[in-house]
């Protein structure tokens, strides 16, 4: 794909790591020196689509919203195994680890409920009902607030201690990926149904501007580089990675990328972007001297493996792959190399 100018580790069996050099769609594998596959953790019994992930860095536990399975899976990274499965959920989409209370929040798309659980015992500690389609979750540890996108157009603001909703940002359609920028005191929110990014003031809880997506549509995942005032937005129609100035919405760079992307991350240590997509690849982009990005890697993962999590502190990119007729669902753990 060319740019438009614009812990104990487990041994991996040869069958797991022996990805073909050229995929069934003819895309070449390259850039494997930037992401090293260190282990694969099976998720037996997990069926259907897998949505978002989060991590408890203190205990080394990854939480996986298994939407199609109606479960939340807690995976011990050190031991490479399932710790616990919370069952009986309603299409879990978003998940967040609330470090100040050692709790997990799960946002359910099926009924709009947000459930809180103790991260040690997995006992439910609270619940909150949103109108419908509770989705992506962000936790602001400094302010002690949790943000949840939901319904036909809203970001719910929840007090992390009381589990009560304390505010709401009204939007014109359902939000997808969004980011909390404490530096500017703003929320940046993908609203794909109206082809825009909404910018909201955190203090007033009001939308202050709208940036129309004119280069591409279906803007779903988003990442933030608050140090350099940049947003990384991935669109699906067509598949594009768009780098924007988050102070004025100016487009700085555009690249072709993997199709059906659902997560994007910025690796500030290596100045790289990782995009995971359901087409079955991780795309890696490196920052150039002029501020644009160049694709330097295309790593095959498997069809439908579109959600991921980048843990900067651990230098790990964790990709979730759904079950197929031949294989269990799994987490693929990659180490970001210099």
Summarize it.
Helices cover 1% and strands 53% of the residues. The protein has one helix spanning 14-17, and strands at residues 35-43, 53-56, 61-66, 71-76, 81-86, 92-98, 103-108, 113-118, 124-129, 137-140, 145-150, 154-159, 165-170, 178-181, 186-191, 196-201, 206-212, 217-225, 230-237, 239-245, 251-256, 261-267, 272-277, 281-287, 293-300, 307-311, 316-321, 329-336.
Q: How are the SSEs ordered, and which strands pair?
A:
Layout: H1 14-17, E1 35-43, E2 53-56, E3 61-66, E4 71-76, E5 81-86, E6 92-98, E7 103-108, E8 113-118, E9 124-129, E10 137-140, E11 145-150, E12 154-159, E13 165-170, E14 178-181, E15 186-191, E16 196-201, E17 206-212, E18 217-225, E19 230-237, E20 239-245, E21 251-256, E22 261-267, E23 272-277, E24 281-287, E25 293-300, E26 307-311, E27 316-321, E28 329-336
Antiparallel strand pairs: 1-28, 2-3, 3-4, 4-5, 6-7, 7-8, 8-9, 10-11, 11-12, 12-13, 14-15, 15-16, 16-17, 18-19, 19-20, 20-21, 22-23, 23-24, 24-25, 26-27, 27-28
